[in-house]
Every structure is written in structure tokens, then in C-alpha cells.
Specification:
- By secondary structure, the protein is an all-alpha fold.
- The protein has one domain.
- It is built from three helices and no strands.
- The protein is elongated.
- It starts with a helix and ends with a helix.
Length: 83
């Protein structure tokens, strides 16, 4: 079980880093679904990892990060539908 939880943690960190790198290098936009999905997946993987480790402050911040990404995706989708 530890192997899987550690793997989730590494995958989550990788999702966050890759999405941020692609945003900064202008390969992705902050309104793209790829950017939001990468952040949501990163948050889910890191929440699983930090729950397993009972690191509740990290659970909290990653859950908030994921919720913000979901909110951002909904706002961006609404803007695209209104155009």
C-alpha cells in the first residue's frame, strides 16, 4: 500500500509542476481544460497521499487547490458558452 500512496504523491507533484511549467512557457493557457484537469488530478493524487500519511494541513491545501481548479474550469466553461 505504501508504494501506491507514494506513487500517488509523486504523480500529484508531477501534475502540478508540469502544468505550471506549461503555463509559464505559454504552451497552455490558464483557461485551458488541460491546465485545470492537470491541477485537479494533481490535487486528487496528493490528497490521497497526504490522507494516508495523516498530514492534514497538506490534505486541506491540496483539497482547496483542487476545488479552486474545479471552480476555475466551471467559470471558464460558462464564459465560453456565453460567447
Amino acid at each position: 500500500m505504501k508504494f501506491w500512496m507514494d506513487s500517488f504523491g509523486w504523480l500529484g507533484a508531477l501534475c502540478f509542476l508540469v502544468s505550471y511549467f506549461l503555463l509559464i512557457t505559454k504552451k497552455w493557457e490558464s483557461t485551458s481544460y488541460k491546465y485545470h484537469i492537470s491541477n485537479i488530478l494533481g490535487a486528487v493524487f496528493l490528497v490521497l497521499n497526504t490522507l494516508h500519511d495523516a498530514s492534514f494541513p497538506s490534505v486541506f491545501i491540496n483539497a482547496c487547490w483542487g476545488a479552486i481548479a474545479v471552480y476555475g474550469m466551471m467559470v471558464d466553461r460558462k464564459k465560453k458558452l456565453d460567447v
